[in-house]
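PROTEIN DESIGN WORKSHEET
SECTION A - STRUCTURE
LENGTH: 634
TOKENS:
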């Protein structure tokens, strides 16, 4: 067995591990089932990649994030580590080739989406592999207590039966104590083994600013905080709009979302990482797996639906240990919007049955067929064809996904892929008969070394440029060559992929566990409540976040907006007395949460009133009960 430090030096060029990495790696190499809870930027991937290279055999990595899998494989291949990935949308032939290569020892790491584990094809081949480690990334997805539950993750435990003695390493960046316990139970840990790095970020200042004119405030923040930054928004359209707004105001900004082509995403990400672009305006599709330590500011224009999501996104600021800021721009209507979305996220029984039945017609699948099959899926076209509303339909699809009927990858564009399978003689003969194909195939073989031994992602646009042909001609040539048996070709897919994770049943046989669904709704409501509590709290924001993740004995950070605003000097005496009088009158009638008190004041005054409330709490003129409600103490 190779020594971990020598592997780290050989493949990554590092002399030492980050905190806890070596402990986690040693635990895995000793054969222990291990759970590693490392915050964003803590270096989770090293924890399974190094032990995978220390031993003979292959490491299976389960991950739900296609883009992240592709990035990991590309980075490993650059370091000389043979790796591959399987995910929704790949053809059966392509999957078969990758699995057979894995059985023959061609890879050190094989990344799989959880849906791939459901197929008999994958499970039969996995039994033939010399597996040295089973790594489960984003392990919180296995827990219904968590914020991103995915039913296929529950099937991971089945691998333990066909891989006896193989240790499991579960990794996540965000998990409450309930989720930590649930992960170990659901993965069948032989003995609890848990490593956690503190969530304390002493260099990161959290702030919530009560604002109605968010764009103007954003501009003000970015002009006053120099350096690289991220601005998180809700939708693709808003990402583009805010980016243009910042550009018009001389801020070097770009936008990013999953609807961009792979080339556009890669280019913009590289520009931002290299400092050519200062501010990235994006949806939550951006940030996973990106190592940029010098981000000085992360701004959220909207309140996320959970503190797990907020903490992970905000935590991308200040990974270099220098002073950084995480700012949420908040208005009371944001809380109302979250509550509304919570209600619409759980549609009726009738709606789910109607959507499921329509899917059968849309995909032309027969009853009893479809397990593991993927289809291009355009939500807008689907809703138009079957006269469905998009919002409730998307919610119904998500519940069908959680119930294990399907998987919807609605945020990924898959690049074209190809493998040359014919002999040199057959290719030469074909090229003589097809002059245009001669040019394209020669260019492809030069541009993608190794394409005759494995499936590789290819850029049709790049081939078109090198061959001096239109992109459409490239596609025609590759399609024709594929039909002639010279190569395997999967065209670029620019639509979301819908995969059936269970054979199709008649709508009346659709089974939904409504008791469990109601329980999930209650859990979602609690996460929304906690997110709103964070936005409205008068407690140190770092303390509140740490307590949420189980660190209940932390001290005030001293640098968040609540800590720095706990003094009367920011408010004139007359204004302070006026606010205090009105607050007393409001709370003499009934105890209220801070957000309800703030609504009694004009939006532009709410930030100041929040400071007054904090001061009155410090002076014990106000008391706050366990439910977070304020009452007057006198």
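SECTION B - SEQUENCE
RESIDUE ASSIGNMENT:
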């Amino acid at each position: 067995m190779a020594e971990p430090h020598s592997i780290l030096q050989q493949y990554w060029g590092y002399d030492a591990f980050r905190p806890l990495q070596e402990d986690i790696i040693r635990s895995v190499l000793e054969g222990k089932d291990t759970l590693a809870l490392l915050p964003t930027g803590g270096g989770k991937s090293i924890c399974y990649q190094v032990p995978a290279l220390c031993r003979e055999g292959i490491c299976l990595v389960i991950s739900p994030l296609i883009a992240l899998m592709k990035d990991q494989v590309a980075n490993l291949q650059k370091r000389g580590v043979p790796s591959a990935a399987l995910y929704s949308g790949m053809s059966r032939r392509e999957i078969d080739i990758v699995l057979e290569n894995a059985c023959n020892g061609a890879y050190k790491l094989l990344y799989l989406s959880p849906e791939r584990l459901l197929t008999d094809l994958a499970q039969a081949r996995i039994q033939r592999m010399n597996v040295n480690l089973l790594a489960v990334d984003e392990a919180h997805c296995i827990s219904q207590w968590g914020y991103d539950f995915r039913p296929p993750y529950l099937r991971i435990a089945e691998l333990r039966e066909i891989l006896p003695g193989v240790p499991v390493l579960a990794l996540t960046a965000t998990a409450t104590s309930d989720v930590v316990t649930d992960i170990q139970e659901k993965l069948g840990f032989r003995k609890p083994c848990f490593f956690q790095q503190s969530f304390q970020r002493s260099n990161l200042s959290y702030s919530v600013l009560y604002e109605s004119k968010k764009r103007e405030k954003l501009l003000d923040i970015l002009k006053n905080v120099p350096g690289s930054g991220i601005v998180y928004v809700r939708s693709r359209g808003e990402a583009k709009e805010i980016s243009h707004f910042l550009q018009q105001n001389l801020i070097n900004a770009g936008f990013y979302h999953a609807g961009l082509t792979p080339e556009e995403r890669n280019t913009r990400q590289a520009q931002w990482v290299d400092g050519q672009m200062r501010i990235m305006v994006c949806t939550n599709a951006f940030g996973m797996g990106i190592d940029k330590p010098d981000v000085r500011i992360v701004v959220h224009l909207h309140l996320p639906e959970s503190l797990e999501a907020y903490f992970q996104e905000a935590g991308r600021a200040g990974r270099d240990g220098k002073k950084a800021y995480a700012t949420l721009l908040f208005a009371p209507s944001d809380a109302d919007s979250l509550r509304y979305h919570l209600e619409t996220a759980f549609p009726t029984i009738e709606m789910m049955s109607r959507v499921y039945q329509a899917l059968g017609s849309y995909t032309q699948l027969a009853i009893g067929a479809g397990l593991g099959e993927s289809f291009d899926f355009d939500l807008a076209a689907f809703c138009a064809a079957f006269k469905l509303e998009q919002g409730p339909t998307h919610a119904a699809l998500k519940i069908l996904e959680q119930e294990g009927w399907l998987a919807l990858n609605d945020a990924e564009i898959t690049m074209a892929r190809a493998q040359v399978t014919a002999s040199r003689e057959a290719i030469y003969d074909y090229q003589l008969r097809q002059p245009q194909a001669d040019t394209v195939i020669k260019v492809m073989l030069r541009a993608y070394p190794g394409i005759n031994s494995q499936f590789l992602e290819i850029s049709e646009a790049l081939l078109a440029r090198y061959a001096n042909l239109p992109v459409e001609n490239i596609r025609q040539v590759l399609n024709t060559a594929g039909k002639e048996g010279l190569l395997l070709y999967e065209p670029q897919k620019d639509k979301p992929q819908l995969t059936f994770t269970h054979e199709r049943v008649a709508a009346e046989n659709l089974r939904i566990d409504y008791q469990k669904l109601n329980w999930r709704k209650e859990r979602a409501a609690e996460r929304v409540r906690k997110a709103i509590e964070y936005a409205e709290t008068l407690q140190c924001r770092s303390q509140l976040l740490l307590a949420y993740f189980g660190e209940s004995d932390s001290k005030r950070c001293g640098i968040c907006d609540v800590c720095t605003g706990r003094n009367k000097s920011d408010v004139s005496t007359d204004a302070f007395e006026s606010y205090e009088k009105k607050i007393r009158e409001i709370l003499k009638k009934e105890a209220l949460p801070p957000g309800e008190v703030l609504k009694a004041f004009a939006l532009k005054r709410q930030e100041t009133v929040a400071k007054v409330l904090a001061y009155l709490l410090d002076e014990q003129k106000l008391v706050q009960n366990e439910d977070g409600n304020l009452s007057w103490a006198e």
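SECTION C - NOTES
The first strand starts at residue 34 and ends at 37.
The chain has five domains: 4-196, 200-330+513-556, 340-413+495-512, 416-490, 565-632.
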